[in-house]
Amino acid sequence: MRKPLLIFLLILLTVSLGFAQEKQGEFMRLHSELIKVNDSLCYQVRKEYSGIDTTAWEPFCGVLDNFYFRSWYEYTLQVEEYNPHADTICVVKTIVQYPKGQFMKIHSERIMVNDSLCYQVRKGFSRRDKTPWEPFCGKFSNLWCEEGYEYTLHVKEYNPHADTIFVIKTVSSVDERKLQKILKEKRMRLKEEGRNDTIRAIPVNRRR
After folding, report:
1. Residue 65 shares a structural domain with residue 131
2. Looking at the whole model, is its pTM more than 0.70?
3. How many Å apart are CA 41 and CA 47, to the nearest integer?
4. Among 30, 58, 156, 162, which is most buried by a count of CB atoms within 10 Å?
5. Which DSSP category does 103 fall into?
6. Domain final residue, candidates 68, 99, 130
7. DSSP letter at 131?
8. Could you tell me if 57 and 45 are in contact, meaning their C-beta atoms sit under 8 angstroms apart?
9. Would you say residue 18 lies in a domain?
10. Domain range spanning residue 116?
11. Cβ burial 108-130 (10 Å sphere, 16+ → b, else e)
12. What are the residue ranges of helices labelled H in 25-126?
């Protein structure tokens, strides 16, 4: 009696492990940029999920089911089966997504360079960054910039010597004139109260 019961339990365990493995699926990475293949825009994909993987990207021109793609984001996905030649790949779960490109800031005031009105820019996104501003006399693609506002941008590439910088997304914008007015009013109020407190919290007006 024990031998048939043991065989039954082994079969049950094998089936359970197979089902668990099938449900888990496989991992794949999705490139942040689409490519054109025979007049069709296709994904760039590769198997596994390591960020240091150097496996060549391959085109996938089918449909990613249960998934929403945002340009300039690279994804790690859990899929039922990795098959770049299939019509549809079913996505079980989006493991992680992160933006490609770089971040930069635009100063609220422009400067004159060789009789041209140019932007002042610097790489990064921190307001505490003391990196010197540098001139950018080109133009921004996909951005409407208002004078007097400091912008934080997510761009394809930070290059102040380029003719055009492509903006993926406007992260935030701050009205510097309004900010300085608020800080001045706070300093005046503290002075009237006879206090010499340092204003630590800087209000930020974010516009989307």
Report:
1. no
2. no
3. 20
4. 30
5. E
6. 99
7. P
8. yes
9. no
10. 102-192
11. bebeeeeeeebbbbbeeeeeeee
12. none
Cα(1)–Cα(59) distance, integer angstroms? 56
**Residue 52, token pair as written in the block:** 């240091």
Distance of alpha carbon 84 from the chain centroid: 25
Angstrom distance (rounded) from CA 74 to CA 61: 17
Residue 205 within a domain: no
Amino acid at 123: K
Could you give the CA distance from residue 132 to residue 188 in angstroms, rounded to a whole number?
A: 30
For 138, phi then psi, to 5°, come to: -90, -150
Query: What's 10's DSSP letter?
Result: H
Reading the chain (208 residues) residue by residue, the pLDDT tens digits are: 455 555 544 555 554 444 444 456 899 999 988 999 998 999 999 998 776 777 899 999 999 999 999 878 889 999 999 999 999 999 999 988 888 889 999 999 999 999 999 999 999 988 788 889 999 999 999 888 888 889 999 998 999 999 999 998 888 888 766 766 666 777 777 777 776 654 444 444 444 3
The C-alpha atoms of residue 150 and residue 45 are separated, in whole angstroms, by 37
Q: How far apart are CA 167 and CA 118, in angstroms?
A: 17
DSSP 4: H
User: Considering the domain boundaries, does residue 15 fall inside one?
Assistant: no
Give CA–CA dist 204/173, Å, rounded: 9
